[in-house]
Design goal:
Shape: elongated
Distance between the termini: 121 Å
Largest sheet: 3 strands, antiparallel
Number of helices: 5
Strand order of the largest sheet: 2-4-3
Order of helices and strands: HEHEEEHHEH
């Protein structure tokens, strides 16, 4: 009986031993696999955290550099480029009066202060140079800056006006030649600076017309410029027919 029991125990131990050893090895291997997966996951999470921190730092640095200008970022708005006879007429250059009257319609495109804006604490912005001294009201002069978009509109209207005068036979004076050359180069650099990357297609309206552009919301820009403007020249201080 005891022999049989002893043999049974030995047989049982002999039977269980290899299986137990195999299970232990499998469990140990699974445990190592889990630890390796945990280490890999931890490494990935750490790597992602570092990447997020680096990207966030770059973005914040870029935003700080860009936002050091006192001018806010205006919203974007969709415009379709189309000819507008209110601002440019095909036949206006044949007659000086027609040219001046048409250019007079450009006045609302500029701010009421003819493009000059006042910037409080302007010395704290390293990007700004020295301000102009302009009329703040009827009795006071003070510092102000010209917004580039209004300078660009002035240059374009100046070229149109003098192009018509030249067509009508006016001699090119040294002042007009100098001012026009300045405007040509200023507008050249302005176009490059703005770098409008909207894509134009072939439309029935003609080259450049009929294409949709994502642009700065010009109404929002004008509102800001008028809110921070210097003396309001457009409120009764301009002659009957004036250009920018």
């Amino acid at each position: 009986m005891s022999h049989r029991n002893g043999g049974g125990v030995e047989e049982e131990q002999a039977f269980l031993s290899p299986s137990s050893s195999s299970n232990d090895a499998a469990w140990s291997k699974e445990l190592k696999g889990r630890k390796a997966a945990q280490y890999l996951r931890l490494a990935l999470e750490v790597g992602m955290a570092i990447a997020i921190i680096v990207l966030s730092t770059c973005i914040l640095r870029e935003q700080v550099q860009v936002e050091r200008t006192p001018v806010p970022k205006f919203p974007r708005k969709t415009y379709k480029f189309l000819p507008d006879s209110h601002f440019v007429r095909d036949d206006m250059l044949f007659n000086q009066t027609d040219t001046l009257n048409t250019l007079h319609n450009w006045l609302p495109l500029s701010s009421e202060a003819r493009g000059y804006v006042q910037i409080s604490n302007h010395a704290s912005y390293g990007i700004l140079g020295s301000p102009y001294t302009v009329a703040i009201d009827r009795t006071t002069d003070g510092p102000a800056y010209m917004m580039s978009v209004f300078h660009q509109l002035h240059c374009l209207s100046y070229i149109v006006d003098n192009y018509q005068r030249g067509y009508a036979g006016a001699n090119l004076t040294e002042e007009v030649a100098h001012h026009s050359a300045h405007c040509f180069d200023y507008l050249r650099q302005s176009v490059i600076c703005a770098a409008d990357t909207n894509l134009e297609g072939d439309t029935e309206a003609g080259p450049g017309w009929g294409s949709v552009h994502q642009c700065t919301d010009y109404d929002a820009l004008l509102d800001w410029a008028n809110e921070h403007g210097a003396m309001k020249w457009r409120t009764g201080l301009l002659p009957g027919v004036a250009i920018l």
